[in-house]
C-alpha cells in the first residue's frame, strides 16, 4: 500500500530583487522586480507503508519545502499529492490525525508548561482514549527515557531532552506516518543512538512509515534502506542506499600520505583511477577495481615516492554524497 503518492509536484517562490541607488529604492516602493524560483521542481515519488526513507540534499535543495507540502502546511504550485489516502491541504483536519511531524528547529511543545501537560493537550486535540494513551505512551516514555522530565517545563530542558519529548509528542496519537525534519540536529551521540533505536522499534512494532531529512548521513545509514537525493529541487537519485554506494563510487579510496609534497605528475595514471589532493602531502586515489589492482597501485606509488602512511578507506555515505554534489555525477 502506498502511503505517499506524489506526482509532478512543483513549488515556486517569488524572490524579489532590489534596484540600486536611492532612485531604485524609490521605484521599488511602487513596483518590485521579482524572479520565479522553483524550490521543488516536478518531483514524483511513492512511499510504501513501513518504509523508512532518507530524504537528503544540500542546503536549499528543497527538502523542507517538500515536507511542508506533504504535511499540508504549504500548497503546491502544481502537481498532485495523496498522503494516507488524503489531500493534505484540503482535508487538513482529518489528515493531521494520521501524521506525526518533528521539525528539529521548531518546537510543538508549549514552552512554559510541564511536558506531560503538553502531552495531555495533544491527547485531547487528537481525541485519543485514556486506554490507548496509557498503553502506547507508557511504552514511548519508557523507551525514550523521559519519565523524569514529564513534570518539568519545556524551557528548562536541554536540547537532547527536549528533542526526545518532541518525538514523544509527535506520537501521542500513534500515527502511521512520521515526518522528521532534522530530528537529531545538535544532539550528542548517545541521544542520537537512543532516538535511532526508538525509531527502529516503532517501525518494527507498528510498521510506522518514516520520511527523514537530515544532514547527518550516519542517521540515514543507521535507519534507511532507501534514499531520495534532491538537488536544486529535482530528484537525482531514488533507490537503495547500498546501490547508491556501489553506483556512485565503485571501488576503494586509498589515502597516500607522503613524506614531502608530491605533484600530480608523479602519481601513476591508470584507467579507472581518479586522484584528489587532500592536503599538501596527502593524495586520495579512488580506484575502481579488484584487490590486485589496489595492491599494484600501492606498490607503484610507493616505488616512485617516499611514503609516510597508506590507508585503504571504506568510502562513507557522506563522501559519496559530497562527490555526487561536487562532481554533478549523473545518477538517473
Ligand atoms: N517562504 C519562502 N519564500 C521564498 N523562498 C523560499 C521560501 N521557503 C524556501 N524558499 C527557498 O526555496 C529553496 C528550498 O528551500 P528549503 O527550505 O526547502 O531547502 P532545504 O533543502 O530544506 O534546505 P536546508 O537543508 O537548508 O534546510 C531555497 O532556495 C529557499 O531559499
From TrEMBL:
Keyword Transport tagged: yes
Gene Ontology MF annotations: ATP binding
Domain named ABC transporter: residues: 24-257
Database matches in Pfam families: ABC_tran
Protein name: ATP-binding cassette domain-containing protein
InterPro entries: AAA+_ATPase, ABC_transporter-like_ATP-bd, ABC_transporter_ATP-binding, P-loop_NTPase
Keywords tagged on the record: ATP-binding, Nucleotide-binding, Transport
Leader sequence segment: none
Family annotation (Gene3D superfamilies): P-loop containing nucleotide triphosphate hydrolases
Amino acid at each position: 500500500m502506498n502511503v505517499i503518492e506524489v506526482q509532478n509536484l512543483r513549488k515556486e517562490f517569488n524572490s524579489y530583487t532590489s534596484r540600486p541607488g536611492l532612485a531604485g529604492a524609490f521605484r521599488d516602493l511602487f513596483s518590485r522586480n521579482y524572479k520565479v524560483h522553483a524550490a521543488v521542481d516536478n518531483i514524483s515519488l511513492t512511499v510504501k507503508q513501513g518504509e523508512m526513507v532518507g530524504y537528503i540534499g544540500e542546503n536549499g535543495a528543497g527538502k523542507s519545502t517538500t515536507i511542508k507540502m506533504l504535511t499540508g502546511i504549504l500548497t503546491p504550485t502544481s502537481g498532485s499529492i495523496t498522503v494516507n489516502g488524503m489531500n493534505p491541504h484540503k482535508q487538513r483536519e482529518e489528515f493531521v490525525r494520521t501524521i506525526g511531524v518533528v521539525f528539529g528547529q521548531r518546537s510543538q511543545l508549549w514552552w512554559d508548561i510541564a511536558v506531560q501537560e503538553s502531552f495531555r493537550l495533544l491527547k485531547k486535540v487528537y481525541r485519543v482514549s485514556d486506554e490507548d494513551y496509557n498503553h502506547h505512551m507508557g511504552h514511548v516514555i519508557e523507551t525514550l527515557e523521559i519519565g523524569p522530565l514529564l513534570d518539568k517545563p519545556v524551557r528548562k530542558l536541554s536540547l537532547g531532552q527536549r528533542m526526545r519529548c518532541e518525538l514523544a509528542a509527535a506520537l501521542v496519537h500513534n500515527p502511521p506516518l512520521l515526518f522528521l525534519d532534522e530530528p537529531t540536529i545538535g544532539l550528542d551521540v548517545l541521544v542520537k543512538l537512543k532516538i535511532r533505536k526508538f525509531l527502529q522499534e516503532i517501525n518494527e512494532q507498528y510498521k510506522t512509515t518514516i520520511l527523514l531529512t537530515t544532514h547527518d548521513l550516519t542517521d540515514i545509514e543507521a535507519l534507511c534502506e532507501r534514499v531520495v537525493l534532491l538537488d536544486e529541487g529535482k530528484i537525482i537519485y531514488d533507490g537503495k542506499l547500498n546501490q547508491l554506494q556501489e553506483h556512485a563510487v565503485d571501488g576503494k579510496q586509498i589515502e597516500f600520505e607522503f613524506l614531502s609534497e608530491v605533484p600530480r605528475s608523479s602519481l601513476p595514471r591508470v584507467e579507472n583511477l581518479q586522484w584528489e589532493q587532500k592536503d599538501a602531502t596527502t593524495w586520495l586515489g579512488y580506484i575502481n577495481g579488484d584487490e590486485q589492482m589496489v595492491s599494484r597501485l600501492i606498490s607503484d606509488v610507493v616505488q616512485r615516492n617516499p611514503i609516510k602512511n597508506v590507508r585503504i578507506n571504506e568510502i562513507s555515505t557522506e563522501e559519496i554524497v559530497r562527490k555526487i554534489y561536487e562532481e554533478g555525477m549523473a545518477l538517473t
